[in-house]
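Worked example 2:
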Amino acid sequence: MLEVGAKAPSFKLEDHLGHTIDSSKWLGKGHLMLLFYPLDFTPT
């Protein structure tokens, strides 16, 4: 777990279209917010 105020580690992931997103591309270009919705695509 990261401490409050700590820098996030670099990561790569695929978006919903299959494109690879690299967090290091955004380094130093302002704020970056990540949102996680664990139940959005979970069958009920």
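The mean pLDDT is 82. Residues 2 and 32 are 16 Å apart (CA to CA).
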